[in-house]
Amino acid sequence: MMHSARRRLDLAGEWNLAFDANGAGLSSGWAAGNWPQDACESVKVPALWTVTHPDKVGIGFYHKTVEIPVEWHGRVVRLCIGGASYRLDAWLNGRYVGSHEGAYTPFSFDVTGAACFGASNELVLRVASLCKTQAVDGLVLQHCPASKQSWYYIEAGLWGDVYLEALPTSWCEAIAVEPDVQRERVVADIEIHHAQAQPGLAELHLLITAPDGQTAVEQVHSVTLLPGATHHTFRLPLARPVLWSCENPALYRLQATLTIAGEPPDSAETRFGMRDFTVQDGQFLLNGQPIYLRGVLLQPNYPVTLICPPEPDMMRREIQLSKEAGFNLIRTHIRPSPPGYLDITDELGMLVYAETPLAWIRDNPRLLEHGKREIEAMIRRDRNHPSVVFWGIFNENRQASAVASDELIRFTRALDSTRVVVDNSGGSMAIDQDFGWVDRATVIANRRLERQKIVDVHIYVGAPIANGVYEWLRTLGTDDPPVDITAYGFGSAAIMAEFNRELRSYRGKVFVSELGCGGMSDLDDTVQRFGGRDLVDAQELRTFRDGLQQGFAKRNLERVFGSLQNLIAASQEAQARGNVRQVEALLTNPRVSGYVVTQLNDVAWEFHAGLLDVWRNPKKAYWAMQRVNRTHCLILKAAHAVAAAGEHIAVTVTLVNTAPLEKSATLSVTVYDTQQIPVVSENITAPPGVGVAELGAIAFDTGSAAGEFRVVARLLADAGAILAETVETILVLPPIDVGPACRQVTWPGGLPNVGSPVQGGVADGGHRRLLGLARPASLRTEDWQSLLVEVEAGSVAIIGPLTPHDDIALSALARHDVAVNLYMGIGNWMGCYHWIPASPLFASLPAPGLAGEPYADVLPRYVLSEQGGDILAGSLRNTQSRLEPPAILWYSDIEAVPFGRGRLIFCQYRVFDQETPNPLAARLLCNLIGVAQGYLA
What we know:
Blueprint: E1 7-10, E2 13-19, E3 41-45, E4 47-48, E5 59-68, E6 76-81, E7 84-85, E8 87-92, E9 95-101, E10 107-110, E11 119-128, E12 157-158, E13 162-167, E14 170-180, E15 185-194, E16 200-209, E17 215-225, E18 228-237, E19 252-259, E20 266-272, E21 277-280, E22 283-286, E23 289-290, E24 293-298, H1 313-324, E25 329-332, H2 341-348, E26 351-355, H3 367-382, E27 388-395, H4 398-415, E28 420-425, E29 429-432, E30 435-438, E31 441-444, E32 452-459, H5 467-474, H6 493-504, E33 510-515, H7 523-528, H8 536-554, H9 558-561, H10 564-587, E34 592-597, H11 620-628, E35 632-638, E36 642-644, E37 648-657, E38 666-672, E39 678-685, E40 691-701, E41 707-716, E42 722-733, H12 739-742, E43 753-754, E44 770-773, H13 781-792, E45 796-799, H14 807-815, E46 822-824, E47 833-836, E48 849-850, E49 862-865, E50 870-878, E51 888-899, E52 902-907, E53 913-914, H15 919-936
Helix pairs in contact: 1-2, 3-4, 5-10, 10-11, 13-14
């Protein structure tokens, strides 16, 4: 918004800052002429003090002297602040001029009565930050709209522009534009402020400029100015408007000029777009046409400066990269976007899901006050941006939403009728390993008042994902799901039963507003880009980098990866493949109307989850998403990632078109054997229609060969250009009979299940035996006691996967001084990376490196704290709570632990209980028995 008759005095630069640790600043007169010059320091504004003083929270006083021009006398003077976190009080020349609460939107104070024109003025600003450990000024972090300050970093201080502004005594304060595509008009509300005691007359000139620069509308109106603020509403016709869309982000411009006799005119202007966005039964529509939302989540954090980008180009770069990757929506997560962000999304044609900072705020007596204040400030600032199509109120916040969303949704709709309003993102269901809840989510469609149900879910299933998890995603939304997701370690039976009940009465589409998995960024490069600056985020990332390097060296993982860089690259490959698999499953699901990948950018301890690192450099997952986000996407899916030699294999072929395809396009599918020789090839005419086209399967026999078979699919235009392509890999292993190996083991609690019966009985090896606990939970306390006594005497016991619910097993081990601590091992939007060496345990299996898709059905759901034994396979992740010091955490997946004269071999890999034949599980089980025999010998 631009103003012609105004003058600005920029206050950026050097300020004094004094911290008030003891709360004595006000009583000591710091704001009333008694500034503590000896106890302050010079700082730059705008900037959060957290950046350079991460340990300083609570109260900080800013001080600056400024000369206000004498020619400003007779005008209205106000102090404008682009953003301060969290609560600010202001004094000019010792006179209190106002306060503001809220961290992310601009505000101003009228300081006319306190100003000394043509003289030096003393400006003091008291800022109260939030704190993770105590209340500040009665402000409790969990009770305030604080975005993700509880997760990442406290944001304290003056981060926005600070300036004094001189206005005429009558001015255009704001313009609100409501585009009405159906009626081909614009409703414009002009807010005019009149600072004189007597009413007056003025001329208001309205000018709309079309996207091509031509005048579209021009009107002149006489308006009466009353003291204070008045609103004047005009309905301006726009015949055959050029619609704003992702492909054609056409922007109009409205200028309002206010002219009063004898005074210079004051003008304001804003850009807007003619577009219509709504939702019906979970299906989103842009300008009346269905649109599949391909979204990515922007975490509210930037390197160095935290709230805003350290350089303006970073914002444009991340939006441009999102566009180039095929995304059409950015979810600006849990806080209003940085200043200038929406100007770029308007220009580039990127939809925006805008959110308040209410996030996970807890219910408290001020909840509605906070909510209304933040919603109004966000809408007032951002309402004219055509890219903004959603207003989001809460995120995964059942408690606050239950008590406040009804009123806050009505309040939001009263302020803006043109956008979809979401009460609680992920409100229908959120699941993670051993976590989840089910509730209800609602939306209000464009220009409607009633709330409608939507299935809005958050799903984090890690990577790689088991075939059953893929199938669950592919059928998400059906009221009789073919897969029980709880069998894979997600949610609970009660949660999924309730979710399925909800689906039985819902006929709309499903919006997956969060999903994704992680892959580590190059921490050495990330830290180096801070240039040695000792900043809060640099410190944390340096700690993670050092912990990763030290742990890598301590465990001699060079023998596994060759270098730390190779481990990082492998983790990024896993992220890329995991995100693609999850999104492919959703794309083949006609009940899904869109998705939002978590997340666009790495941040803080989440240096895994981003498609870009913290500096907005693409990771491998970014490039992988480009393929699945294309207008035409080919998807291949084998029933299993591993097969036995001699099996007949079928790979399904699906084409997803989000735009019509030329009729002459051809689909080519070729199977390559282990020697990369084509063995099967098919060509079919590709269906041209929009939507999901299941094209059957390509089938082949593996014969006796072992190795990797590749299936390559290409969508070819008539001229031969490749419109889409993809590859599916199937690992073929020699068949193996586990019976002979299993007969060398005594199996208390029962034989393992490898998907087919294990022939033969159980063997008793005599005094020193090899014991196998395929199902540790099946043993009673006395069984455990006998077993552990026997191992102490020299036997070896293989202990199958333990879970936190195996109380008898864990208690028995603890009584024998074996403290087994279990941690979640599936991963979520962060990675948990399972490393495997080249060793007899993994003979004839993919190794060394990170366990990839062939291991998806056997990877640990829970990992162990390292026991001090021989780690035969391990894993790593990092601390994921701001209550923990930053650290890389190292675990064992398979570990042989000395126990008396024997060994306990803990195996968290799920090789003992497979529903269907799994040649990799069978091979690993046989290898494990062989390794265990070596300890027995």
